[in-house]
Amino acid sequence: MRLALTIIAATLLAGCAHDGARPETASAAPPSLANTSWTIAAINGAAPTAERKAELRFTEDRISGNAGCNSFGGGYSVAGGTLTATQLISTKMACAGAGMDQENAVFKILGQPMTVARQADGTLVLSDDAGSLTLQPADR
Fold it and tell me: Which residues, at least 6 apart from 84, have a Cβ–Cβ distance to it below 8 Å?
């Protein structure tokens, strides 16, 4: 019995060995977000409802934009297809109804690590347990 368990354990460990090479079938990492600008086209699948244009901009290590009411900024990093926004701060203007609701939804999504997925149509989807943001290039 002990020999059988040792053989099973050795087989499992050998199967987990990794030489650092990426398999040919692995999906490519998302392109860099640095120096790109995006318009928020959808929040949780619905079109933005605020009067102000909702947008995101990325530099090498900073994210900034407007969530439909207030401007915001902070740091960000991307690792393994996951975007993490850090130390986000925003202005504190009050907006009526839809603007604040939209902003709260955007900040809730940006407040967690997000999966980054580039779509065939050029849009970018950021998603996590709080929801999703569909971004389109700002030049559209």
Answer: 76, 77, 78, 113, 114
